[in-house]
């Protein structure tokens, strides 16, 4: 993609308004916290403290709006506490330009590294720096700075208390995640009626698993409707694939295929009914016609072989789903102990994981470290440059750069365009009202609260809308202590444009492209898919040693690797750089091959043998061959060499010769898996170096 095309695409994305579900009650609650803090500060008679408290409550409120499976009042406390500390240190360092620049450089470097922990941590830390740059401009003394910091912390306490005292739709996000997972499986069942090899996006199941991670206290308070369904949805999905597959399941046409279509339609109907009941907290109402289909027919077309086993398994699992609506379904681990919830790490575990993530990204090739260095350089240079200009309000330039810069190209450039236009609209509207009405402190407070409530309400509609609301909010807040709005308009528009230009220019000069990492992501996906396949065929090799947890963990790793690849591929698609050995067509074909590989392994998993089944030496040989060949193939993908599957082909031929004319599900699945591996090698052969050619270290 050329630079002109990439810039047009990112500008279009930044101007787009997303239509998503809003949360009015949550927005009113968060805006009420801001109003409460500002009202108390004004009652005490300090307009500057009111502004500081408003920013603290604002940051604490926006932190809890980030994508989360629970309200997390502690996140409001952390956001406000971090802002209070950074504001107090900023006040102490603001007396001298050099000390403030050093403090700003250290703080932005840490802010950039916070993206290693996750997007929520990165966004919260970004808010801390942005608000600190505004609050330190309010005139005060050292003792007054301590008061500002305490009031900012109070804003976080108020927001956290409101979350606890006035919960809005408790367990609502968990209900939605679980309902979305069941609805996704239901939609998959209906699509399989028309396309027996239809793809399935595992994202809803991954999100449902994330939503199911609970603390012991949360597990005791969890509604009964949220228990058991997730694992049932996980188990139903491979059975649906096996039933619809024309190779392993029923034939493509005929009475058996008609019976399969009836079962798939009935399964979709039942799962939709259960998803609707979970989402709205109502009893499950399943149509009688659907349940009559999900019974073994006394007459009519019957299924045979693997298709019959899959149908019986599906009927049993759907019956479990219906029964789960009446009685709780407990999860039983492999060793027989009851596991009533998916444990979530505590505070110490979260801190340890965060430190490990930061340490893992502390390398020069990491896009997170490059983002941190880029953010530090842009913020400090922008502050010094804006101080040299006769515009005042020097903090607007580093504030804009901090809010615009992201670890990837697309978000940085789209946010740069959206922030400038949103800022321009917000400042003009807010400044115009201030100029015409000349509001006093209380009317300015009311207008600011209205803006912040609008921002909370429209937070997920696009960056241009939220930027306009935040800009007007800042204008009204700064009018509380009587700052001149004209100066704010002139300075902010010019310096916002300067900050956005610096941010986008910095990414162009010192980028962290995702395109060169595509082969690494593809190799990781191949390695995890291979581990999943190896775990499944190990069960066929030694059924008595069957460990379901091993297969489950390998499946989760494969899903995570697929999600990482899809994120990287989406980012690389919008970057103005050459593909460097993996063209868009090759990437698309490779993704199709690995998706097919995962689907085949899942199909074989649906027919795992019982513990009493005899061991299979051929399956053991195939699993061992995969265990040796997959890591070598992953290395070949990274080094732009075509992967070799000679040993895998030889092992498959031995297995098929031993199976004879009536191979089971596992040998047929192994054949489909090898075909997918061949498709992968063919896709990657475009632009690959001949085997044995050394890799160019400059790439």
UniProtKB/TrEMBL annotation:
Domain Integral membrane bound transporter, residue spans: 383-505
Its membrane topology: Multi-pass membrane protein
Subcellular location, record wording: Cell membrane
InterPro entries named among the record's database cross-references: Memb_transporter_dom
Main location: membrane
Region (Disordered): 567-587
Lineage top rank: taxon: Bacteria
Protein's UniProt keywords contain Protein transport: no
Keyword Transmembrane helix attached: yes
Pfam families: FUSC_2
Membrane-spanning residues: 34-62, 74-94, 100-117, 149-168, 416-437, 457-480, 492-510
Cellular component GO terms held in the UniProt record: plasma membrane
Keywords attached to this entry: Cell membrane, Membrane, Transmembrane, Transmembrane helix
Entry similarity comment: Belongs to the YccS/YhfK family.
PANTHER family: MULTIDRUG RESISTANCE PROTEIN MDTO, P-HYDROXYBENZOIC ACID EFFLUX PUMP SUBUNIT-RELATED
Name of protein: FUSC family protein
Organism, as annotated: Streptomyces malaysiensis subsp. samsunensis
């Amino acid at each position: 993609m050329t630079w002109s095309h990439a810039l047009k695409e990112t500008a279009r994305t930044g101007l787009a308004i997303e239509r998503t579900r809003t949360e009015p009650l949550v927005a009113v609650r968060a805006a009420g916290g801001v109003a409460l803090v500002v009202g108390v500060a004004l009652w005490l008679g300090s307009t500057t403290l009111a502004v500081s408290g408003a920013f603290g409550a604002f940051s604490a409120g926006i932190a809890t709006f980030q994508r989360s499976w629970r309200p997390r009042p502690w996140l409001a406390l952390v956001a406000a506490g971090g802002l209070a500390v950074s504001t107090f240190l900023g006040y102490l360092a603001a007396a001298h330009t050099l000390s403030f620049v050093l403090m700003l450089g250290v703080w932005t470097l840490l802010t950039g590294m916070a993206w290693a922990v996750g997007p929520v941590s990165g966004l919260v830390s970004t808010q801390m720096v942005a608000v600190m740059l505004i609050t330190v401009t309010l005139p005060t003394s050292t003792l007054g700075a301590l008061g500002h910091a305490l009031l900012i912390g109070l804003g976080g306490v108020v927001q956290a208390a409101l979350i606890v005292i006035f919960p809005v739709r408790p367990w609502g996000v968990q209900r939605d995640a679980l309902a979305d997972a069941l609805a996704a499986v239901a939609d998959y069942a209906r699509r399989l009626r028309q396309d027996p090899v239809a793809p399935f996006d595992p994202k809803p199941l991954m999100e449902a698993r994330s939503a199911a991670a609970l603390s012991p206290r949360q597990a005791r308070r969890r509604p009964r409707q949220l228990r058991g369904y997730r694992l049932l949805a996980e188990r139903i999905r491979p059975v649906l694939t096996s039933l619809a597959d024309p190779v392993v399941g029923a034939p493509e046409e005929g009475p058996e295929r008609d019976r399969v279509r009836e079962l798939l339609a009935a399964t979709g109907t039942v799962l939709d009914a259960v998803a609707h009941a979970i989402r709205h907290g109502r009893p499950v109402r399943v149509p009688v016609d659907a349940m009559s289909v999900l019974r073994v027919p006394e007459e009519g077309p019957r299924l045979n072989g693997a298709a019959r086993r899959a149908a019986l398994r599906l009927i049993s699992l759907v019956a479990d789903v219906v029964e789960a609506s009446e009685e709780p379904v407990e999860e039983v681990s492999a060793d027989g102990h009851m596991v009533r919830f998916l444990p979530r790490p505590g505070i110490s575990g979260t801190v340890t994981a965060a430190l490990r993530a930061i340490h893992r990204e502390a390398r020069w090739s990491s896009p997170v470290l490059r983002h941190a260095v880029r953010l530090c350089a842009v913020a400090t240079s922008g502050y010094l440059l804006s101080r040299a200009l006769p515009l005042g309000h020097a903090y607007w330039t580093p504030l804009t750069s901090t809010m615009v810069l992201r670890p990837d190209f697309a978000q940085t450039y789209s946010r740069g365009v959206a922030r400038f236009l949103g800022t321009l609209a917000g400042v003009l509207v807010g400044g115009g009202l201030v100029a015409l009405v000349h509001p006093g402190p209380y009317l300015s407070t009311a207008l600011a609260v209205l803006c912040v409530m609008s921002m909370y309400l429209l937070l997920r509609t696009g960056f241009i809308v939220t930027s306009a609301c935040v800009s007007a909010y800042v204008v009204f807040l700064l009018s509380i202590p009587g700052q001149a709005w004209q100066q704010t308009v002139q300075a902010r528009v010019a310096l916002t444009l300067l900050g956005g230009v610096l941010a986008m220019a910095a990414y162009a000069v010192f980028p962290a492209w995702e395109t060169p990492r595509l082969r690494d992501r593809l190799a990781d996906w191949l390695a995890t898919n291979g581990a999943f396949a190896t775990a499944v065929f190990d069960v066929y090799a030694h059924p008595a040693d069957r460990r379901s947890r091993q297969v489950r963990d390998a499946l989760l790793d494969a899903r995570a690797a697929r999600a990482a690849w899809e994120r990287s591929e989406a980012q690389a698609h919008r970057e103005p750089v050459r593909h460097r050995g993996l063209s868009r067509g090759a990437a698309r074909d490779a993704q199709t091959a690995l998706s097919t590989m995962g689907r085949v392994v899942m199909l074989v998993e649906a027919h795992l043998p019982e513990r009493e089944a005899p061991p299979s030496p051929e399956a053991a040989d195939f699993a061992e061959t995969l265990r040796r060949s997959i890591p070598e193939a992953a290395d070949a993908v990274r080094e732009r060499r075509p992967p070799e599957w000679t040993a895998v082909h030889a092992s498959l031929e031995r297995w098929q010769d031993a199976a004879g004319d009536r191979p089971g599900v596992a040998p047929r699945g192994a054949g489909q898996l090898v075909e997918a591996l061949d498709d992968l090698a063919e896709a990657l052969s475009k632009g690959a170096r001949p085997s044995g050619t050394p890799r160019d270290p400059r790439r």
